[in-house]
């Protein structure tokens, strides 16, 4: 019966478990960091979208008072939702707004989340529930 061959000098496996444990801890830490950053990005996107929707509704509600007042109300509402209003205009009775949310994260790649929204009165429908045709602008010739 043969026994174990004698160990060669300098080929001791002691301490290998520590290297594996440190590697596993580093991988887990990196994974957790990426997960936290992705969650922060998703949250920022949701905040930007919510702020854009609410700001557009507020601006559309004040469209009769003019674009200055409508956009001022939209700016205030976006700020109360931790967002920045980056664009606001009225297109007839419709309000078109853009918001942006700066996000913080653990990784050095930080792009702000942005969203757009449009709000205005619903289109008029006939009794059958279909929208009537849009009237074409008339042109007169002399």
Automatic annotation (TrEMBL):
Keywords: ATP-binding, Helicase, Hydrolase, Membrane, Nucleotide-binding, Transmembrane, Transmembrane helix. Pfam families: Tad. Residues 112-142 are annotated as: Disordered. The chain crosses the membrane at residues 20-42. Residues 15-61 form the Putative Flp pilus-assembly TadG-like N-terminal domain. One of its GO terms (molecular function) is helicase activity. InterPro entries: Rv3654c-like, Tad_N. This is Helicase/secretion neighborhood TadE-like protein.
